[in-house]
Amino acid sequence: MSHIADRIISDVGLESGVAALTTEKIEKVVTRMLKGETGAKLRAYKETCMRCGLCSQGCHYYMSHDADPSYSPVNKATETMYELMDKKGKVSPQRIYEMAQMAYTECNLCKRCAHYCPIGIDTGYIMSQVRRICYLLDVVPQYIRDTAHSHASTMNQMWVKDDEWIDSLQWQEDEARDEFPDLRIPLDKEGADIYYSVIAPEPKFRTQLIYQAAAIMNAAGVDWTMPSHPGWDNSDMCMFVGDYENMGRLKRAHYESAQKLRVKRIVMGECGHAFRSVYDMGNRWLGHKAMPVPVIHAIDFYWELINEGKIKITHQYENPVTIQDPCNIIRGRGLMDKLRDVVHFLCKEVVEMTPNREHNYCCCAGGGVINCGPPFKNTRMTGNRVKAEQLKATGVHDVVIPCHNCHGGIEDIIGYYDLKMHGKFISDIIYELMEKPEV
Amino acid sequence: MTEFYVFVTGPLAWIAFGFFILGGLYRLISMYAEARAKDVSSIAYMSWYYGLRSILVWMIPFKSMGWKSDPLMTVTTFIFHICFLLVAVFLGAHVVMWDTAFGISLPSLPSQFGDIVSFVALAGCAVFAYRRLALPHVKGVTRCQDWFALVLVALPFITGVLAYHQVGPVLLMTTLHVLSGELLIALIPFTRLSHALFVLFTRAYMGSEFGGVRHAHDW
Ligand code: SF4
Ligand code: SF4
Ligand code: SF4
After folding, report:
1. What Rg, from alpha-carbon coordinates, does chain A have?
2. Residue with CA nearest ligand 1 atom 6
3. Which residues, at least 6 apart from A394, have a Cβ–Cβ distance to it below 8 Å?
4. How would residue B10 be classed by pLDDT, with cut points 50, 70 and 90?
């Protein structure tokens, strides 16, 4: 059995954070956290866990490391949260480094292990609370910390300035009008049916996705809008960092910008973690049991358009494809059937990975792990060999991936294991196949 | 010795049941109060339907991914718990006890069968011990408390079998058997065995989250 102490990775955020720690400070923060924020749920988990180890096989890290017990969910909980609880926070700063590395980079919070634990223990929740403690101790990997800072300062993940945002949208509108002369990206349209929100990497790096979304909205005749003001970014790294204060600010801004425009619904682009933050985490922090503005994921939206006959395609996608089930919208929101309906509508042949649907393995990018940046890339690559095997076994070259994080993670895995595959968003395929006006 | 036996089967038994019932109530109520105070955003999502659904599904062997992943453990867990309940409630001698102490009359197991069931339960304990010793992913997370709980459960079976087969002085063995049984009962709320009290709630909560919020199966 390996030990986290033997695989410490140098990260400036973790190092400088730990350098500023004292055992007293750790004790104080842990006590404050355990007394103030966590409650019976965590205590019951710790006490009720029978240390049976059944959860081990649920975790792709464990499976990918040839059943190394160090990566099993129960061990991760034991070496971090349970130890902090047992020792009442009396641990050394170096131990916090190890715990932070474990919690931020060796768990994707994907909750697959939940399918394996008879007791019903939610290791994802436990690891989130470890991260919360590490955040309060200021021991956070540098890259994700940076992103969270960007959220806190600009209300978006990528430090996109307010005018740059509007600029990007208008630029895409302009481009698209060559192809679709009537196309508009309506900004701040009050009372629209749909408010379309994206994650900040879309205007920054993947602007063509906004183009494609506009093309689809245009072709389907949807009454839609995008906001010109902050709140447009639905992504949420603060949630993964454990910075719940800023997570709350982000979610409130997102909901409020939609409320300001009195729209009927929010449709979110193809991202999983952003969706988690509105139905699972941010909403609870804000005290919303139901969402104040109905929010649906792009899969849901495309499914509706297809069922209402609003998406017309000229032909089906010829090459066989496989489907990545993103945890946050499948195990997280039950969209597996709709995802399949949409993909089968668009594509001739679908080769499923096994296991799939809510039992699918995480891409190993999720839970903010990919956002911890280059120092931890190998953690993700070696930590998810099972995904590479799963992908390879399908024998196809195209993977439909309706989640930004999964895209990053799977493209990396494809490269690392030389699988010669390529990821596609659903909107990539719809755009490719849809009827376009002849210009 | 006889006086001690009378004490053990009399007042001490009541004390043990007292610990179990009052202690159990105390643990459940205080846990619930803490949840009301600090886990509001979780309690809000508790659902009878999904909670019960999850409990029922997990009572079916090999239905969930977890039960499928480790057949030895699955078979052992189910058989052990069934045997435990059978012996605790329906063993001939226990049925007599229920009747004399509480006036509850229950059908009793044929004594031969009760004997077999006890051995099977012990075999279950042996498998649990084997897992803790031999499987790296279980060994690594096993602590003294886990061994303590296992010994606590195994002792009444060991002494019971010895007493029944009249190995060693019968009165002594019987007294030890009753003592270990009482220890077990009294300590359920305060050891790892408290999973007997809490597992329904953790399971129901996971079921509610998965069913009601996440719209997915939790098995
Ligand atoms: S990565 Fe997923 S399966 Fe592994 S411990 Fe974390 S939540 Fe569980
Ligand atoms: S399966 Fe559940 S009870 Fe067993 S060790 Fe894992 S978390 Fe604990
Ligand atoms: S990135 Fe995708 S697969 Fe990975 S955790 Fe998120 S949703 Fe799951």
Report:
1. 22
2. A107
3. A322, A351, A352, A353
4. confident
Alpha-carbon distance of A408 to B94, in angstroms, equals 62
Question: Tokens for A9?
Answer: 């990775």
Res. A438 pLDDT band, cuts 50 70 90: confident
Residue A124 beta carbon below 6 angstroms from any ligand 1 atom: yes
**Residue A143 is encoded by which pair of tokens?**
């890259």
Q: What is the pLDDT of residues A153-171, one digit of tens each?
A: 999 999 999 999 999 999 9
Q: State ipTM.
A: 0.94
Cite the beta strand spans of A248-405 per DSSP E.
Answer: 265-268, 295-297, 321-323, 398-400
How many CB atoms lie under 10 A from the CB of residue A302?
28
The pTM of the full predicted model, rounded to 2 decimals, is: 0.95
Biggest alpha carbon–alpha carbon distance for chain A: 70
Looking at residue A303, what DSSP letter applies?
Answer: H
Q: Which residues pair with A197 in a beta bridge?
A: A268
Q: Are the C-beta atoms of A363 and A413 separated by less than 8 Å? A: yes
Asked if residue B118 lies in contact with residue B158, where contact means CB atoms within 8 angstroms, the answer is no
Query: What pLDDT was estimated at residue A135?
Result: 98
In this predicted structure, the answer to whether residue A439 has a pLDDT above a threshold of 70 is no
Cis link prior to B110 (omega < 30° from 0)? no
Per-residue buried b or exposed e for A256-277, using 16+ beta carbons within 10 Å of the residue's own CB: ebbeebebebbbbbbbbbbbbb
What distances in angstroms separate CA A52 from CA A49, B71, B77, B135, B188, one per listed residue? 8, 13, 10, 10, 18
Atom of ligand 3 nearest to the CA of A367: 5
Secondary structure (H, E, C), B121-157? HHHHHHHHHHHHHHCHHHHCCCCHHHHHHHHHHHHHH
Phi-psi region of A66 (alpha: psi -120 to 50; beta: other; left: phi over 0): left
- Which residues from chain A sit within 8 angstroms of residue B34, using beta carbons? 39-40, 43
CB contact under 8 A, B137 and A331: no
The protein residue whose alpha carbon is closest to atom 4 in ligand 1 is: A59
DSSP state of B23: I
What three-state secondary structure class fits B96? helix
Q: Are B171 and B2 in contact (CB under 8 A)?
A: yes
Cβ of A327 closer than 6 Å to ligand 3, yes or no, is yes
For residue A292, give the DSSP letter: S
* Cα atoms in the Cβ-side hemisphere of radius 13 Å centred on A201: 14
Long-range contacts of B191-195 (CB under 8 A, 24+ apart): B191/B145, B191/B148, B191/B149, B191/B152, B192/A47, B192/A50, B192/B145, B192/B146, B192/B148, B192/B149, B193/B149, B193/B152, B193/B153, B194/A47, B194/A48, B194/B27, B195/A47, B195/A48, B195/A50, B195/A119
**Cα A421 to Cα B131: distance, rounded to the nearest angstrom:** 41
The answer to whether A369 and A380 have CB atoms below 8 angstroms apart is yes
Q: What is the pLDDT of residues B170-183, one digit of tens each?
A: 899 999 999 999 99
Cβ contact (<8 Å) for B137 and A289? no
Mean pLDDT of all residues in B138-152: 97
Six-digit token string for B96: 């007599």
Could you read off the pLDDT of A391-425 as tens digits, one per residue? Answer: 999 999 999 999 999 999 999 999 999 999 999 99
Within 10 angstroms of residue A217's Cβ, the number of other Cβ atoms is 24
